[in-house]
């Protein structure tokens, strides 16, 4: 009798141990899947935020460089010339910019003569105010302000260590430079609570570029940027309200330029992301943290449910085993019941395993597809592009990349709201799929940008029918609440060529797309092979 009781106890303990081990293993597997999915989401948001910040800096830098070229191209620069050159530079195209200006270097001994010269060029009443004790000054000759604050005409920028330093860097390097963060001189009259950490962009201005005359440095084109106004909306949009993000200049005292904090931050170091970019010869750092909103979309809690179910099943099995060992007369009956319970347990475990496999497939799909349109995302597109480069290079074959940007989409978002914008993006995604072969790839890059890979082409003319179809299809109205919404498509086409890489083809297609937009929109432009 004692031996039988001991065997029953040992058997019950064995069942409890084994069931607990299996339950813990299932819990760990599900939790790992949840963490992997959350990490993939953070990687995607980190990539999109970093790309968006880089793109915005490059766009502002291009605007300032174009301004420098336009100023340098004038043989006899006047105030009217500067007003005309800057007429197209407006505040709503440059969020966060305080204004653009033209700055010239002036030694102390030349202040009076330089002041007289610029007054003769149309700057009536210009007064250059040199900072005492400074030999070489940097005067603001012209400024187009966007914020209605005090005018900077005649101000000596050597009054700001950061502004003067970035002018020196731009002049020495001959390239765009961005200053260390500081409070703009034009913001001196603001109360401390309203001031923002800001930077100045500077590009050197040369005369004689592109001509037989020698290049001569004459000054700088400048742009002030207030950090929070400049980048906060971009960080919020690209993080889709589920990621907290911070743009930081890590040098010196590590100044925060922009910071967005939607939701509640989750303390999980494995999900934190940090990236660095070089902006105007200066290193910036982008830090990102997950929020409770992000974790809510990863079905957190399924692992705990799995553990609870496993423990429950284990206790049930142990109880059944104990009952079976309690009486020889009911042994067969207890075995039948236990067998039935085991079969149900196996079925439940198979269901859990199937759910795990389905969840893994879903995670894999979400990692490589855009949630809104169901198209391939940027990661999958780059993978397909690398594969196309490899396969087409072996046979000397061609493929084309079509880079597509929607014209008029921002107006729909502004007038009808983001839900209407999402409807338009889904409709355009469906139209882009039409007529493509199984071997072709269509992807959403983000915002209203799409890209297509057309494989197995003879030359660039094979891509034209597809581009023409997309332009026609995009113009068809999209009904939103009974109201027709209309957009059009500007398309850049780039063909692979010897020595080209993924970034080369994307850049060529993107450049061609901007050429299409600048040529009147709703058309395609083919990239010129190098």
Describe the protein's architecture and organization.
With 530 residues, this protein is of the alpha+beta class. Among the domains are: 2-38 and 303-366; 378-526, Alpha-Beta Plaits. The chain has helices at 2-72, 79-85, 111-120, 161-173, 227-238, 292-296, 302-326, 331-368, 378-395, 409-416, 418-433, 464-475, 502-518, and strands spanning 97-107, 136-145, 177-178, 198-207, 216-226, 243-249, 255-260, 273-279, 282-290, 398-407, 441-446, 449-457, 478-480, 483-485, 488-495, 524-526. Strands 2-1-5-4-3 form a five-stranded antiparallel beta sheet, with helices on both faces. Strands 11-12-10-15-16 form a five-stranded mixed beta sheet, with helices on both faces. A hairpin with an 8-residue loop joins strand 4 (198-207) and strand 5. Helix 1 packs across helix 5 (227-238).
Which helices and strands appear, and what pairs or packs with what?
Elements: H1 2-72, H2 79-85, E1 97-107, H3 111-120, E2 136-145, H4 161-173, E3 177-178, E4 198-207, E5 216-226, H5 227-238, E6 243-249, E7 255-260, E8 273-279, E9 282-290, H6 292-296, H7 302-326, H8 331-368, H9 378-395, E10 398-407, H10 409-416, H11 418-433, E11 441-446, E12 449-457, H12 464-475, E13 478-480, E14 483-485, E15 488-495, H13 502-518, E16 524-526
Parallel strand pairs: 15-16
Antiparallel strand pairs: 1-2, 1-5, 3-4, 4-5, 6-7, 6-9, 8-9, 10-12, 10-15, 11-12, 13-14
Helix pairs in contact: 1-5, 1-7, 1-8, 7-8, 10-11
Organism: Actinoplanes couchii
Signal peptide: 1-28
Pfam families: CHASE, GGDEF
What portion of the residues fall into strands of 2 or more residues?
A: 15-25%
- The multimeric state of the shown protein is single chain
Radius of gyration computed on alpha carbons:
32 Å
Overall outline: elongated
The CATH architecture of the domain at 378-526 can be given as: 2-Layer Sandwich
Domain CHASE: 140-235
Domain GGDEF: 397-529
Protein name: Diguanylate cyclase
Main location: membrane
């Amino acid at each position: 009798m004692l031996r039988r009781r001991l065997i029953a106890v040992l058997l019950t303990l064995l069942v409890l141990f084994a069931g607990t081990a299996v339950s813990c293993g299932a819990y760990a597997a599900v939790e790992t899947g949840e963490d992997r999915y959350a990490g993939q989401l953070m990687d995607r948001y980190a990539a999109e935020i970093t790309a968006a910040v880089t793109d915005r800096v490059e766009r502002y830098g291009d605007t300032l460089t174009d301004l420098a070229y336009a100023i340098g191209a004038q043989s006899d620069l006047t105030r009217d010339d500067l007003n005309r050159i800057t007429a197209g530079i407006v505040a709503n195209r440059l969020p966060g910019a305080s204004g653009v200006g033209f700055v010239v270097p002036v030694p102390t001994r030349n202040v009076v003569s330089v002041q007289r010269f610029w007054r003769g060029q149309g700057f009536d009443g210009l007064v250059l105010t040199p900072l005492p004790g400074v030999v070489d000054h940097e005067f603001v000759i012209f400024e187009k302000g966007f914020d209605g604050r005090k005018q900077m005409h005649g101000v000596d920028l050597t009054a700001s260590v950061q502004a003067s330093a970035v002018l020196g860097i731009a002049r020495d390097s001959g390239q765009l430079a961005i200053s260390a963060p500081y409070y703009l001189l034009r913001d001196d009259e603001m109360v401390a609570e309203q001031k923002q950490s800001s930077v100045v962009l500077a590009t050197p201005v040369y005369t004689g570029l592109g001509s037989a005359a020698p290049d001569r440095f004459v000054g700088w084109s400048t742009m002030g940027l207030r950090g929070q106004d400049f980048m906060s909306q971009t960080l919020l949009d690209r993080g889709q309200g589920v990621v907290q993000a911070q743009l930081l200049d890590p040098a010196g005292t590590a100044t925060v330029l922009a910071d967005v904090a939607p939701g509640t931050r989750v303390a999980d170091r494995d999900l934190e992301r940090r990236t660095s970019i070089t902006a105007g010869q200066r290193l910036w750092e982008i830090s990102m943290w997950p929020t409770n909103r992000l974790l809510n979309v990863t079905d957190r809690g399924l692992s705990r449910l799995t553990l609870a179910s496993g423990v429950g099943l284990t206790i049930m099995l142990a109880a059944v085993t104990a009952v079976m060992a309690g009486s020889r007369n009911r042994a067969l009956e207890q075995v039948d019941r236990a067998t039935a319970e085991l079969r149900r347990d196996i079925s439940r475990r198979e269901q859990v395993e199937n759910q795990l496999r389905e969840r893994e497939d879903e995670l894999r799909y979400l990692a490589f597809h855009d949630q809104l349109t169901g198209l391939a995302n940027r990661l999958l597109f780059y993978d397909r592009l690398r594969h196309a480069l490899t396969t087409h290079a072996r046979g000397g074959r061609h493929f084309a990349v079509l880079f597509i940007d929607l014209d008029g989409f921002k107006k729909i978002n502004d007038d009808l709201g983001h839900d209407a914008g999402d409807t338009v993006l889904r409709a355009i995604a469906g139209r882009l799929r039409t007529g493509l072969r199984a071997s072709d790839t269509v992807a959403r890059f983000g915002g209203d940008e799409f890209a297509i890979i057309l494989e197995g082409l003879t030359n660039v003319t094979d891509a034209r029918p597809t581009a023409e179809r997309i332009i026609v299809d995009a113009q068809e109205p999209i009904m939103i609440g009974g109201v027709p919404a209309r957009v059009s498509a500007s398309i850049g086409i780039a063909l692979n060529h010897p020595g080209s890489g993924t970034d080369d083809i994307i850049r060529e297609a993107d450049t061609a797309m901007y050429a299409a937009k600048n040529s009147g929109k709703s058309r395609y432009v083919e990239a010129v092979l190098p």
